[in-house]
Amino acid sequence: MTNDHHLIRVDAGGRYGFGHVRRSAEIAKRLIKMESQLSILTKTPKDIAPFFADMDVEVRGIESESQFLHLMQTAPASTVLIDHLYDYSFEALNNLQKHRIILLHNTCEGGFACDHVIFPILHLSPEVEMDARWQVDQLHVGLEYFVLNEDLLEASRSIDTCLQSIAVTTGGTDPHGVLFKIVDALLSTGVTQPISLLIGDGFMHWERLKSLRPQLPENYTLKPFSYTELKTAKRVIVTMGTTVYEIAFLGRPCGIVSFNDDLAIKSERLTTRLSGTTHLGHFEKLSITGLEDFLDAQETSAMVWPSPPDAVQRITNLITKGSL
To answer: How many helices (H) and strands (E) does the chain have?
Structure first.
């Protein structure tokens, strides 16, 4: 099998958010520096384009997962990195044995047919991690695989100033409108500290936000999402996802809001493994008392992020060499 050409399967925007594509873009940059040939396969080429605009990379649109799988069956042998939360069956990925398949952060059954499966997290369930079907060196778990993008690294080098505001971020798109539930809960507490509502580039509820803005007290400010705002906040309220880990890397305590029951379980698990994190509950039933306790807490720093090996290099090693 030749591995001179690599494919990355990833989507962005809408219900997908932007965490996956930021990670894939950092991996793509490294592969291009290594003079690898690279193609991106996506259902969302318009949302993907800005992340790969400065790279010499082919972005190919696909309409469905079945089209992607058919394309892989007919394509020349290559390495395929799938950074997309689609429920691939074991049979579907097992049929792609001519390729080296690497799956990122996906608990589907198809993972057991892949060469490598990576979970760059601390909240993986014990049932998944201890599954007897994993082969030797097939499963890779932990912060040593968590990709720190360049914008995040730049913000981490900024000087901590102010540390008075409470930052709120609900991801790049917030398809469930969690921001509005958090604002309602904050208003119920009567909090007087400065509140920075950080709005993602792909936020899906602009009209509702425009209606809300004139009703907000003076201590509430709407701002574009930025890692620097997170770095200089006293504490952060965030929806469960990649950003929780990014906030931990920046050293800020964070209160996690989940938007489904599965994420509520994962959030609770994460708070036992990642210091400085608090689960505030499901967004439809936030505890006002719990929120007040989080806002009134005195600590202004979270965990000290470990200094793991270069995560991008570890992942590109799996792509180009098949091993670490």
So the answer is: 13, 13
Please state, as a whole number, how many other Cβ atoms lie within 10 Å of the Cβ of residue 54. Answer: 9
The single-letter DSSP state of residue 213 is G
CATH number of 5-146+308-320: 3.40.50.11190
* SS3 category, 199: strand
Q: Encode pLDDT of 62-110 as tens digits.
A: 999 999 999 999 988 899 999 988 999 999 999 999 999 999 999 999 9
CA–CA distance, 148 with 259 (Å, rounded to integer): 24
pTM: 0.94
- Where along the chain do the CATH 3.40.50.11190 domains lie? 5-146+308-320
Tokens of 288: 């006002």
Topology (CATH) of 151-296:
Rossmann fold (3.40.50)
Rounded Cα distance between 167 and 244, Å, is: 13
Scan for tokens 């058919």, then name that residue.
70
The per-residue DSSP string of 148-185 comes to --HHHHHHHTS------PEEEE--SS-TT-HHHHHHHH
Residues of the chain with CATH 3.40.50.2000: 151-296
Q: Are strands 79-82 and 100-104 parallel, antiparallel or unpaired?
A: parallel
Give the contacts of 54 (CB within 8 A, at least 6 positions apart): none
Q: Taking a C-beta distance cutoff of 8 angstroms, is the pair 232, 258 a contact? A: no
> In the chain, what percentage of residues exceed pLDDT 90?
83
Measured N-to-C along each axis, helices 311-320 and 19-33 cross at an angle, to the nearest 10 degrees, of: 70
Q: Can you tell me the distance from the alpha carbon of 294 to that of 75, in angstroms, rounded to the nearest whole number?
A: 52
